[in-house]
C-alpha cells in the first residue's frame, strides 16, 4: 500500500512539475512591436521583405556588405538600435539543409531564453516551408530544459515566432508532425534525466500511462513478476531479483494501421538504474547509470509520437524494466537462468544485464506479435563508444534490406548509424560448458558479442536489427538542439521507420 502511494505521489510530481519547453508559433508577415528580429540573408545580401523602413533596410544592406557577411548557413551578425528593435540578427541561408535549419532553430530559441525576449524570424519566400518546419523542430528540441530540481529556475518560456506567407498551412503541418516528435522526445529525455530514486520500474509504467492518457488506438499491458514467472522469463527476473523494486514488462500497443497487419516492434532496454549488480561498477560514472533506460524511453516515446500524429501503422513498444542492484538476493556470476525460449544462459557478469532482459523481451515480442520488423535498442556496451565515438550508434542485423532501411532513416533524421558485423565467431565467444550460452565472453568485439547474445533469441528469418546506442544516448555537453543530459536518441529514427512503412501502404 505504501509503495503504491509513493508511486502515485512521484507520478503526480512529475506531471505537475512540467519541464520548461518552448513556444513555437507561426504568424502572418509583418513587424512585431518588440522582441529580437531575425532576418535570413543569402550571399547576394538581398533582404527579404520585412516591413522595415526603407532607410533602416538600406542601412542593414550597407552594414552587411561592409562586414563581409558571407550569407553561408551558420553565418550570423548582429546589429543594434534599428527602428523599434534593440537588436536585429542576420543569419546566412546559402546551402541551408535540414540539419542547418534545426541548428538555427536551436540557436534562436536559446537566444530567446537567454535574453528573455521573443524571437521573430522573418521567413523569406526563397526558402521552403520544409526548412521552416525543420527550424521550428530544432527550436522545439532546443527549448527543452530539465530544471524541476533547481530552486532558482526561470519561469520564462522561450518563444520563437516565424512570420511567413502561409502561416496556417505551415502551422497545420507542424502540429501534425513535428509537434509530436518534440513532445515525445521531451518525454524520453524526462525519463532519462530523472534520478534513479524517482524513476524505477513501476514509476516508469505509471508515467507511460499518464503520457498516453486520452490517446486513441492505444492499449497498455504490464506483466508483473507472477506473469513473467508463468511465462518462464528467468532472464528478466534474474536481473531484477537483487532490487526491492520488482521488475515489469511494459507493452504499449498502437493500432493506427489496418486490422491484422503485423506491427513494427520497438524493444528497448529499461534498466532504471545500473550498479552492475554483484559485478559492481566503479564509482567514477555510476551516477549516470540512470540513463540505462534510454532504449526503453526511446521505444515508448516513438510509439507516443505515432499515436499523437495518428500514424497509419501498427506498432508496439516492449520495455523490460528492472533495477540492477547488489544485495543478498541478487544473482551471482556463475548462476544459470532459463529464458522464455527455454534456452539457458550462464551469468558470466551481472553487469552484462541488458542483453539478459532483452533476450526475454525480443522473444516475447516475436512470439506474441509476429512483427513485420523488430528493432531492439539499448545502451548496451562501452565497446561501441570506443569503436564509434559519440556520433554514431552501432547497427547489427542479419538482413541487408533491414540494415539499409535503418541507415536511410538515420541519414534522414540525423540519428546516424554505422553497421557493424555479426561474425559467426561471436557464437564461439559466448559458448558455455554448462549452459546453452554465456551472457558475455571473449576479449574481442564487445559490442558484437552483446548483439550475438540477443540474436540467439531471434529466429534467423525474422527481420530484425539491434542498435547499440551507448555512445549517443547521453550528451556530455549541450548543443543548440540538445541540452546536456538525456538526448532522447532514437525517437526520430523510429518515427522515420514508421513513415517508411506508411509510404509502402
Strand content: 15-25%
CATH architecture of the largest domain: 3-Layer(aba) Sandwich
Distance between the termini: 48 Å
Number of helices: 16
CATH level 3 topology of the largest domain: Aminopeptidase
Basic shape:
elongated
Please mark out the parts with pLDDT under 50 across 5 or more consecutive residues, or reply none: 1-18
User: Considering the protein shown, what is the CATH homologous superfamily of the largest domain?
Assistant: Zn peptidases
CATH class of the largest domain: Alpha Beta
Rg from Cα = 24 Å
Task: Write the SSE topology.
Elements: H1 2-16, E1 23-27, E2 36-41, H2 54-67, E3 76-82, E4 85-92, H3 98-115, E5 119-122, H4 129-142, E6 159-163, H5 167-176, H6 178-193, H7 201-212, E7 218-223, H8 225-231, H9 234-240, E8 248-255, E9 264-268, E10 270-274, H10 294-308, E11 314-324, E12 336-338, E13 344-346, H11 354-369, E14 373-378, H12 382-388, E15 393-397, H13 400-413, E16 417-419, H14 425-429, E17 437-438, H15 446-455, E18 464-468, E19 474-475, E20 485-486, H16 491-504
Parallel strand pairs: 1-6, 2-4, 2-5, 5-6, 9-11, 9-14, 10-11, 13-17, 14-18, 15-16
Antiparallel strand pairs: 3-4, 7-8, 8-11, 12-13, 15-18, 19-20
Helix pairs in contact: 1-7, 3-4, 4-6, 6-10, 9-11, 10-16, 11-15, 13-16
Amino acid at each position: 500500500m505504501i509503495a503504491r502511494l509513493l508511486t502515485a505521489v512521484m507520478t503526480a510530481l512529475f506531471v505537475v512539475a512540467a519541464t520548461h519547453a518552448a513556444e513555437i508559433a507561426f504568424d502572418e508577415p509583418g513587424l512585431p512591436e518588440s522582441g529580437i528580429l531575425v532576418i535570413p540573408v543569402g550571399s547576394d545580401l538581398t533582404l527579404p521583405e520585412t516591413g522595415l523602413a526603407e532607410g533602416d533596410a538600406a542601412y542593414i544592406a550597407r552594414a552587411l556588405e561592409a562586414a563581409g557577411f558571407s550569407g553561408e548557413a551558420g553565418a550570423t551578425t548582429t546589429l543594434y538600435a534599428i527602428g523599434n528593435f534593440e537588436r536585429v540578427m542576420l543569419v546566412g541561408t546559402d546551402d541551408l539543409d535540414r540539419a542547418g535549419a534545426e541548428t538555427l532553430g536551436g540557436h534562436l530559441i536559446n537566444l530567446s531564453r537567454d535574453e528573455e525576449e521573443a524571437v521573430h524570424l522573418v521567413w523569406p519566400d526563397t526558402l521552403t516551408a520544409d526548412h521552416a518546419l525543420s527550424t521550428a523542430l530544432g527550436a522545439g528540441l532546443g527549448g527543452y530544459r530539465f530544471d524541476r530540481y533547481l530552486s532558482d529556475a526561470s519561469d520564462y518560456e522561450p518563444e520563437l515566432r516565424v512570420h511567413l506567407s502561409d502561416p496556417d498551412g505551415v502551422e497545420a503541418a507542424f502540429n501534425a508532425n513535428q509537434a509530436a516528435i518534440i513532445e515525445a522526445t521531451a518525454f524520453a529525455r524526462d525519463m532519462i534525466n530523472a534520478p534513479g530514486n524517482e524513476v524505477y520500474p513501476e514509476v516508469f509504467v505509471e508515467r507511460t500511462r499518464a503520457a498516453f492518457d486520452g490517446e486513441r488506438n492505444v492499449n497498455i499491458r504490464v506483466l508483473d513478476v507472477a506473469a513473467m514467472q508463468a511465462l518462464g522469463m528467468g532472464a528478466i527476473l534474474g536481473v531484477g531479483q537483487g532490487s526491492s523494486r520488482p521488475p515489469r514488462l511494459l507493452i504499449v500497443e498502437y493500432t493506427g494501421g489496418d486490422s491484422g497487419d503485423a506491427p513494427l516492434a520497438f524493444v528497448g532496454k529499461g534498466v532504471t538504474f545500473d550498479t552492475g549488480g554483484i559485478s559492481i561498477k566503479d564509482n567514477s560514472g555510476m551516477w549516470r547509470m540512470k540513463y540505462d533506460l534510454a532504449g526503453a524511453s526511446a521505444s515508448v516515446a516513438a510509439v507516443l509520437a505515432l499515436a499523437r500524429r495518428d500514424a497509419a501503422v501498427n506498432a508496439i513498444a516492449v520495455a523490460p524494466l528492472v533495477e540492477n542492484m547488489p544485495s543478498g538476493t541478487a544473482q551471482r556470476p556463475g548462476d544459470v537462468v532459463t529464458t522464455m525460449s527455454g534456452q539457458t544462459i550462464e551469468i558470466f557478469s551481472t553487469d552484462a544485464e541488458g542483453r539478459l532482459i532483452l533476450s526475454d523481451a525480443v522473444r516475447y515480442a516475436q512470439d506474441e506479435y509476429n512483427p513485420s520488423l523488430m528493432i531492439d535498442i539499448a545502451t548496451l556496451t562501452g565497446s561501441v563508444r570506443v569503436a564509434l565515438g559519440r556520433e554514431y550508434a552501432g547497427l547489427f542485423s542479419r538482413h541487408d534490406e533491414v540494415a539499409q532501411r535503418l541507415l536511410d532513416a538515420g541519414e534522414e533524421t540525423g540519428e546516424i548509424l554505422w553497421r557493424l558485423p555479426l561474425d559467426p565467431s561471436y557464437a564461439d565467444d559466448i559458448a558455455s560448458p554448462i549452459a546453452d550460452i554465456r551472457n558475455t565472453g571473449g576479449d574481442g568485439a564487445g559490442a558484437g558479442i552483446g548483439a550475438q547474445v540477443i540474436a540467439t533469441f531471434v529466429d534467423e528469418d525474422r527481420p530484425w536489427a539491434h542498435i547499440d546506442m551507448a555512445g549517443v544516448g547521453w550528451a556530455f555537453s549541450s548543443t543548440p538542439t540538445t541540452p546536456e543530459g538525456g538526448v532522447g536518441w532514437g525517437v526520430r529514427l523510429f518515427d522515420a521507420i514508421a513513415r517508411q512503412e506508411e509510404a509502402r501502404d
